[in-house]
Design a protein that fits this description.
The longest helix has 18 residues. It is built from eight helices and eight strands. Strand 4, helix 6 and strand 5 form a beta-alpha-beta unit. By secondary structure, the chain is of the alpha/beta class. It is globular, with a radius of gyration of 17 Å. The protein folds into two domains: 140 residues, 3-Layer(aba) Sandwich (Rossmann fold); 68 residues, Orthogonal Bundle (DNA polymerase, domain 1).
């Protein structure tokens, strides 16, 4: 097996953003009259982290449809204030640097962020964005993770075959998407909110540098 195409999720895989997005979501929901116990907040946070915002609200349920876009806008605005607190996960820059220096290897992104958020946030704020030659966001496909469509598009855009590609992510939806796309998967348990859900990954990453063993 020769892996030439490394495709990455962002949140929980490259940067630590769990505390940026999840507490903020429930603060906003409370402002709109939706209240949850600490146990419910923890459960929902772990289930929806890393999927598109609209799908997160639909999963939580019992939220009025005519309020969803307003809630999403308020969530984006509140999270933007905290985004400066997001940090690149230790070891990620060094891992990306080494992978990028391998002959014939290309690095890309598949994320549940929309294109504007990717360009104006991740691409602008994080120096590691320089390592990625292509990106597929939630704006480019109709179906999102856990469907494989975004990863399939990433492989098509990069001219890569499933057998020479690998998707790196930290959630069960990432793993399901890779399986659906027919490609390899590496489970990043080093910053996963629910590592037990991806313990059966084809490759298990206890630290970012473990990905360097995949060749």
């Amino acid at each position: 097996m020769a892996i030439k195409n490394f495709i990455f999720d962002i949140d929980g895989t490259l940067i630590d953003t769990y505390d940026v997005y999840m507490p903020t979501l429930f603060e906003v929901l409370a402002d709109y009259g939706y209240h949850y116990t600490p146990e419910e907040e923890e459960h929902y946070s772990k289930e929806v982290f890393g999927i598109p915002g609209w799908e997160s609200l639909e999963y939580i349920g019992n939220i009025k449809k005519d309020q969803m876009q307003e809630i999403l806008d308020a969530w984006d605005e509140a999270a933007e204030v905290k985004q400066q607190d997001a940090k690149v996960i230790d070891g990620v820059p060094e891992m990306l640097e080494e992978l990028s220096n391998r002959p014939g290897v290309q690095l890309g992104i598949v994320t549940s962020k929309v294109r504007d958020e990717y360009e104006n946030y991740f691409h602008q704020m994080f120096d590691i964005a320089k390592y990625f030659s292509f990106a597929v966001t939630a704006s480019e496909t109709v179906k999102h993770k856990p469907f494989g469509d975004p990863i399939v598009k990433a492989m098509e855009d990069s001219g890569s075959k499933p057998e020479e590609s690998i998707y790196v992510g930290d959630t069960v939806n990432d793993m399901k998407a890779a399986i659906d796309a027919g490609t390899h998967f590496a489970g990043a348990i080093y910053d996963s909110a629910m590592p037990e859900r991806i313990k059966d990954s084809e490759f298990l990453l206890k630290k970012p540098q473990d990905l360097l063993k995949v060749k």
